[in-house]
Amino acid sequence: MNPQATATTPGGRDVLAHALASQVKLDVVETDYRGHASAVARAAARDDIDLVVAHGGDGTVNEVVNGLLADTGGRPGGYGQVPMLGVVPGGSANVFARALGLPRDPVEATHRLLHAVEERRSRQVGLGLAGERWFTFNAGLGWDADVVSGVDRRRGKRTGPSLYLRTAVACYLRPPLGRPALTVQVPGEQPAEVRTAFVSNTDPWSYLGNRPIHLNTQSSFDTGLGLFALRGLALPSVLRHLRQALRTRSRHRGRNLLRHDDLPIIRIVAEEPVNFQVDGDLVGQRTRVEFRSVPRALTVAV
User: Fold this and answer.
1) How many CB atoms lie within 10 A of CB 66?
2) CA angle at residue 26 from 28 to 103, to 5 degrees?
3) What are the tens digits of pLDDT across the range 206-229?
4) Which CATH superfamily does the domain covering 10-128 fall into?
5) Rounded to two decimals, what is the model's pTM?
């Protein structure tokens, strides 16, 4: 459990813990620092625990996933070697849980999880692997990672769509690291130069409040990775793609757009260090990242 997650309260966490303890032998750990959830999940995998439940936002889920898969070496089909994952949303976006069709309300999600455990209901999901870091729904280099960096500096209980919008505008007008060129390489295509790159493991790419943002509508946990990259960031082009992204199941078109679906691998090289994010969490700055699709990487209780 992440006690700092946006949509969690001490009373609510106690109710969820008691509900889960009624059906399973339960240990509860409240995270104290960045990386704590990953360390606990890795220990659980080594101790042959059957189920690890992440209660928090997408950052907590990402840490747990990386801990569970830390010893698999990124091998396809490694899901049989690690505990099953359960998710009880507690953040502001909860993109991974929503993409799985789980309720946003923590109490309803706990009820759903209890039934899934009782009925042995689960599914295998494919994940993305960016370098050595797993991601569940998206990753990126450039503008979106600049936004994540900016939000991290202001993050708190008031995190919400307005903060992301303000930060996105600020990073567009004054990119903190400039706009160095990125070279994108995908199988069967010539390298292409772009200014920002978004990688999707599912659709929607993210949410703006209750509004889904669609970049690669063909992406899912059962396919490869989606790539959405812009060769230029002129305002008319950005506004056009923003309008398309907010439409229901919109398919993007545009001269500045480089877009692919169902890719097994994507390589992106920057001419100088740029910000790099996975699942809305800033990893740092990179000049080269290789993204791989890993089918059936994890078992999730649904």
Assistant:
1) 24
2) 80
3) 998 889 999 999 999 999 999 999
4) Probable inorganic polyphosphate/atp-NAD kinase; domain 1 (3.40.50.10330)
5) 0.93
